[in-house]
Each structure stands twice: as C-alpha cells, then as structure tokens.
Amino acid sequence: MDGTVLIADDDRTIRTVLTQALTRAGCRVHATGSLAQLLKWVEEGRGDLVITDVMMPDGNGIDRIPAIREARPDLPVIVISAQNTIVTAIRATEAEAFEYLPKPFDLPDLMSKANQALSRRPRKSDPIPEPLPAPREAADPAMPLIGHAPSMQALFRMVARVLNADLPVIIAGEAGVGKTTIARSFHELSDRCDRGLAVLTSSDATEEAIARAADKARGGTIIIENPAGFDTGAQARLIGLIETMEAGPDRAHAPRIVATTGSDPQADVAAGRLRSDLYYRLAGVTVSVPPLRARVDDILPLAAHLLARAAAQGLPERMLSDDAAAMLRAHPFPGNVRELENMMRRLALTASGPAISTAEMREALSQQSGHRTPAAAPVSALTPAPEPAGVVSLPQVGSRLSDSVEAHLQRYFDLHGDALPPPGLYDRILREVERPLLQVALDATGGNQLRCADLLGINRNTLRKKLTELNIEVTRRRKLM
Q1: Using CA atoms, how far apart are residues 31 and 46, in angstroms rounded to an integer?
Q2: Looking at residue 252, what is its pLDDT?
Q3: Are residues 110 and 193 in the same domain?
C-alpha cells in the first residue's frame, strides 16, 4: 500500500491504532483531532486519502466533505462513525464518501477499503466533478433506524445506494421491525422529498383511491402496504396504475412505488395470494429488515435512544439499571422495535425513580409476554426458575459444566410447559456463556488483554471487538488496550 493518509478523529486511541496499521502497511500518515487541521492539510495539497470521524469537537466530518471535494476533487474520503443510523449512512453516500464504516470497525476491513481507495486514485486527466449540495438533514423518524449489527449496516448501505433510483422497492420483515419507517425514508431522504407521498392499503384500494394516490404523489412516492392483502380486483388496478406510469404521457413525473410486506412475497405468489405479474412489477429491489432478536447488540442503544426521546417529549428522564438492562437484552422481542418502543414509553411514565429497577423491568416484560408471571420471567436462557429464597443452586463439586448446563436448560424448557421457547435460543445461550467466560478470563489475567486473548485462544482484535459488543465495562483493572 502506497500513499499519504490524513486521519481526523478526536479519539486518540483510534488515531494511534490507524497510524500504526497504515504505517506498517507502507503509508505515510498525518493524524489530528481537529477538522480545521484536516482541511488545512487538504488545502495545502497533502494526502492521497482522508479517513474522518463524523462527530468532532469542531464540527461534523460529513459536512466537511463538500469543502474537501471543492479543494481536492480527486481525494477519496472514508467516513467512520459511532452514529450508526440510516441517516448517517445516507448522508455519507450522498456526500460521495468513498466508504462508510460504523464504529467499532473491523481493522482489516478498513485497511482493505483504504487500499482500494489508494489504488483507484484518478489520473490527472479525469474530469473534475460538479460541487455537491450540502448533505441533507432529516427529521427523527417515528421508529428509530439505529443499528450497528452487520445486517442493519448492510440494510443502510442498500437503502443509500438505491435511494434516488427509480426502481420499485419491496421492504420485507416481521411486524414491528420498522418497514413503514424505512419506506418513508425512501421518500423523505430522497430527491423526491419535496413532492407528494401517498399510502395505499387493502382497506381502501378502490379505483378512485388509487387515482387520488397517483395524483397526490405525482413525482413523489406511493407506499403500498401488504400488496398480498389486496383482493384480485385491487391487484389488477395496481397493475393498471403501474403500467400507466411506465408508458403514459406523464411518465416523466411517475411516482416511485415502495411496497411493504410482513410475509415472503414469493411464497405469496406460490400460494396465489399475490399476482405474479404484480410481484415482478414491484420487486425491482428487495430490502429485508432483520428482526430485533437477530441483532441483540442493538437493543440497549435503541432503548437508550427511546428513553431519551420520551424525555424530549415531556416524559420523565429515565435510565436502565444494570440488571434491568441485562433482562431487557435477554428478551426475545416478538414484537420487535415497536414492542421495545412501547415498553420504554410505559417505563418512562411508570418507573418510580430515575433508574428503572429489576422489579419494574420484570413487570414490564411480564406484561409484554402476556402468559408469564413476573417470577417466571427468565432473565436469560441459562437462568433457572427462582428458588423460594432467591438462591440459585450451584453444581456440586466434581460435576461437569455440561451437566450443570443441561440441568439449567431442562428447567428453562420446563418453564414453557408444552410450548417451545422463543426462536433464537442457540445464539442466546452462546451469548450467555460468552459474557461470563470473558469476564472471568479478564479477571484471571488481571485485565491484560494480550494474556487474556492467549488464554482463550483468540486474536486480541477479536477479544476487543467482543468486549465492545457485549458492553463489558472498562475499569482500571480491566482496561481496553
């Protein structure tokens, strides 16, 4: 790897790690904690690549990209950010950043992107691009689109790539994952945002309703909710609408079609619920939204965001106690983000103090699940049913760990009677074992991560990533290296 890299990040640790990695790879590096210094270097003609954080003490890194491009149109910019929202991904894409990577990032991935950026430096004869407009701001969506999980980051990138295309979109996912919010993002964050938005549902899909929607959304966006729920006549009218938009005299102002579905559209076609010719007209791009149980590490950041938003709307300020947070993280959330949002608003209103207690969280989870009593609400997949005096029995000396785990699991299954536990049990169990394993190993090695990684037989970068993912608290004795 060859070239000069300019790094702007107010986190000294990140500056040090990137400087060392890039220097070892053969690059020259200038690092700063100031956007002003970064822009000074750019204007002086230094650097072949910029790596910048978003939230800096003296400004926003994405907001500075137009100035960087104006001064040096051929200078690629990689954006790194802990602001893991769809808006950040879209704003980085709109500003024509070379790449956007969420924190904590995978160092080999960032090094690969840096190598690609340096390898694709344009020739002197390449045309100078037009200046970019200022990156678009967006209102806080009704349901938060926040996520560091790889599945959500992939979703954000997909939305950013096709945001201003004319292709129709199908957004698929379980109830409560935020399909309608994402559908609205396709309108509100796109170039169509100053034109009309219309929503069509199966309860109002008459010829007149479809005509009104087309007129209202001229040049804008039509959201079709659950097209498989439309009767055959309504589906035929939708096909007629799309054909008119594609070939009619006003096709230059045709609205974009974004459909949402809680089922597999191909299965709907096979079952006869959705006309195949309608499906193929809708499925220009398919975006799958993961359920909340598949991105457990996003639960606590989402909960904190929802509590902060509730406080901004006039409800009391609340935070989660450590035990309440652990209980929340172990909940399977069949209702996904909507369930979490309702729970946080209710707890913000009803909690007795600033910190939501274990008892309050247990009661909230019991109300959400409906069939469980507060005492039986499992804190985790490996927690046995409470003993009368609140004492958890320990394995006898000489017993194997596998025997103890098997006993705990059997009691956990017994709690559900004839029903099965919620899906995702395998991952939940692995997480429950992984956290105490890392904590005990860190304690045994005095917080020395190099020794701890060697003890566990894993790479130190893998250990650091897992400590961040599992929110293992950093103390003087257990300090991130």
Answers
A1: 12
A2: 82
A3: no
Residue 278 sits in the same domain as residue 320: no
Same domain, 156 and 283: yes
Look up the pTM and report it: 0.57
Alpha helices in 121-178 (DSSP H): 150-162
pLDDT digits (tens, 9 = 90+) for 282-338: 999 999 999 999 999 889 989 998 998 889 888 899 999 999 999 999 999 999 999
Give the Cα separation of 257 and 220 in Å (integer): 9
The tally of domains found in the chain comes to 4
Which amino acid, one-letter code, is at 462? T
Burial of 390 from C-beta contacts in 10 A (0-12 / 13-18 / 19+): exposed
Query: Is the CB of residue 159 less than 8 Å from the CB of residue 287?
Result: yes
What single letter denotes the amino acid at residue 322?
A: D
Coil, strand, or helix at residue 259? strand
Structure tokens at 169: 């979109």
User: Do residue 209 and residue 313 come from a single domain?
Assistant: no
CA 239 – CA 274 distance, rounded (Å): 12
Sign for the CA dihedral angle at 102, 107, 113, 114 comes to positive
Query: How far apart are alpha carbons 327 and 310 in whole angstroms?
Result: 21
Q: H-helix or E-strand containing 398?
A: none
Can you read off the two tokens belonging to residue 87? 């808006």
Structural domain boundaries enclosing 458: 424-481
Identity of residue 137: E
Tell me if 362 sits within 8 A of 398, measured CB to CB.
no
Written as six digits, the tokens of 2 are 């060859």
Closest CA to 196 of 179, 175, 212: 212
| Preceding amide of 104 cis, omega within 30 | yes
For residue 227, give the nearest of 217, 216, 241, 215 by alpha carbon.
Answer: 241
pLDDT tens digits along 357-406: 999 999 998 876 553 433 333 334 333 333 333 333 333 434 466 766 77
Least Cα distance to 29 among 67, 71, 1 occurs for: 1
The closest of 312, 317, 311 to 354, measured between CA atoms, is 317
299 closest CA partner among 244, 254, 344: 344
Is residue 256 helix, strand or coil?
Answer: strand
Mode of pairing for the β-strands spanning 59-60 and 55-56: antiparallel
The CATH number of whichever domain residue 187 belongs to comes to: 3.40.50.300
